[in-house]
Design brief:
six-stranded parallel beta sheet; 406 residues; alpha/beta; 43% helix; seven-stranded parallel beta sheet; 15 helices; single chain
Amino acid sequence: MKILMLSNTFPYPPTRGGTHVRTFHLMRYLQGQTHVTLATQRTPEITDEEIAGLRDCVSELIVFDGRRPTVGHRPPLAPASKLKRLAEFAFQGTPPSVKAGYSPEMQAWIDQAVADRKFEAITSEHCVNEAYIRPEWHKSLRTIVNVHSSVYGTCLNQLQTGTSENALRDRLNLPLLKRYEQRYCQKFSQIVATTPDDQAQLQQFAPRTPIAVIPNGVDFTAFPMRQSDPGGQHLAFIGAMDNLANIDAAKWLCAEILPALQKRYPEVKISLVGNRPTPEIRDLAKNPAIKVTGAVESMAEYLHQATVCVIPMRTGFGIKNKTLEAMAAGVPVVASDRGLEGLAIEPPQRALRANRVDEYVAAIGQLFDDPHLRQSIAAAAHAYVTQEFVWAEAGARYANVVLGEN
């Protein structure tokens, strides 16, 4: 069986984080079962060496020039341009974020490949790639959308929690996003979600479409269990630092949680570890208690040096790779409901939950003060992820969906 995988984001190396990780590992498993062609886009930071590395992972690699600017670095739009984008969204039904990454050249190539019957199945890796799928195609081949998180659910959550970057814009966008998600969900043969929460949300939009829940996994080679507890009062927050949900979490951690924590632990330090920190993230390092690393060779090395990994996500749906990676690395986690979505954290106790500042201070303080608690939580979490969040198992389940064997 020949499979075409579509990914606007270039999924190599998988250390880029975010959507890249899931796409890469599911792609690699599928390639071991069948013939995979990957169609993706190259942005200026992608090197020839990375293209060569990705080409070795699939049967065929098709690369188009990407046009989308990096999230968090977009120049501000004039009011007239904002109104024009909103009007186009309302009349055309496609969000600006989807249109920004859309490639007519990529669409033309896909259309011709389908006309020539080159593939038996097409997967849209992340919902933004749904734009390339024609509604009528599900009659002649399998079409799967791998929804990493609901865009409507994410926007609604941001408005409910006060974490929206632009509340007025998002209130206007919310019904449009609901209409958009309802429309695209109904044109696929099958939908894949990462958590039961997203499954329930998407099932409302496409009640007759099968929806499988396939969680993320962990690369245990890249995130090995640490050999010793460093002690101290050192926090780590990891993730791509141009992601809006991560930006909000990092800023809230440093502006609200850190000052409250310093009243009890004056020596506490925070490392913000991840690629592409935006100017507002880099500015946080003006505080001597905060380190902004930028890109690092090994995320696990920084996790191993941390007393606690704190994941104060206030928005963003789906299973968080950062949570799984910290657990795999043997670092006790304090996280929000969003940071722990899709995970069973007790019993036994595998993480500490916090959503308010006082809850974070109490939970982090517990772990700072009790090395035995750190050890027991880290051990339970590590055992949990090694049993339940293995990429090979996720890949096998995804292969069943793509190949029509589920």
